[in-house]
Amino acid sequence: MVTRQVASVLIYRSDFFVGKRKYMETKQTRYSLLNDQAQSLLDGEHDLIANMSNLVSLIFNSDQNINGTTYYRLKNGELILGPFQGKLACVHIPLGRGV
Questions:
Q1: Per-residue pLDDT for 25 more than 90?
Q2: Cα–Cα distance, 5 to 8 (Å, whole number)
């Protein structure tokens, strides 16, 4: 059994309201496929950073309208940039503040 640490992944979409109906119709199918792919990537791999890196890449490359997928880790009272794909991201974000 693989132990997994839960972390937040931020996903930025550039077309949130464009084609919303079509997107919602295929959302369940797409998420099911993403889930299967993620399970396959994580199966047998125990390194947290490797798993985080592969997951952000999988999510980022799953949809052409995603601007970025980012992990942030909570450390010493602030969010610290972890593995990401996409546009440049803030390295340090104090708790209670936005980007």
A1: no
A2: 10
What's the whole-model pTM score? 0.68
Rounded Cα gap, residues 69 and 91, in angstroms:
14
Name the residue ranges covered by the structural domains of the chain.
Answer: 8-94
Q: Could you give the CA distance from residue 71 to residue 84 in angstroms, rounded to a whole number? A: 6
Q: What is the mean pLDDT of the chain?
A: 80
| CATH class of domain segment(s) 8-94 | alpha beta
pLDDT confidence of residue 98: 75
Distances (CA, A) of 69 to 1, 19, 73, 85, 91: 27, 21, 14, 5, 14
Angle of helix 20-42 versus helix 48-60 axis, rounded to 10: 150
